[in-house]
Amino acid sequence: MESRRLSITLISVVCLLGLCNAIESPEYTVVHSESEFEIRLYRQSSWMSAPVRDISFEKATRNGYHRLFQYIQGANLNFSRLSMTVPVLTSIVPGAGPLHSSAYFVRFYLPVKFQANPPSPLPELNLKSVAWDGHCVAVRKFSGFARDGNIVKEAEKLATSLSRSPWANHTSSESGYAYSIAQYSSPFKFIGRVNEVWVDIDKSGEGCKSSGVAAY
């Protein structure tokens, strides 16, 4: 019985951090695209957020994800089970740590069914529902695993690309996050992994509005 429970849990983990069929994700429109990055306009959306204090991005993501996983499996006041979504988004708060961070927020995109009225998490999970207004994000894709050793480099590459673009002076500090790492792939997937670095763009950013380029 214990091994069966473990198998079910592993499958659920694969679905949440990986890609089961028909997984929901936040909707956006691509307003600008270059070889090294693109600018997306995300629609208004709701997320469940887990604050974590840790030096390590990897440990923080695991800690926050574990609490979010309990929440979607029914650890909420409604005992509701929520469908899997992607990405798992870890936002990095600027600080003095070796990874340019002192704290993190790990986030789970709420399924459309629960966007307007998400179940309240159990208090001991220390989770909070967060509503995001529509906003623009600069995105750089990268493969492999998102690790402590490579996320800063990927964020720096995005910053360099932006510095040579019309968005050079339009990164936003309103959110309070240096950048975010979006993970789409299962931890058991070793080839063709998909990750992204996200940096918020302020509302005055060049062309930061829907242009009908592509909608997702």
TrEMBL record:
PANTHER family: HEME-BINDING PROTEIN 2, HEME-BINDING PROTEIN-RELATED. Belongs to the HEBP family. It comes from the Eukaryota. This is SOUL heme-binding protein. Residues 1-22 form the signal peptide. Keywords: Signal. InterPro entries: Reg_factor_effector_dom_sf, SOUL_heme-bd.
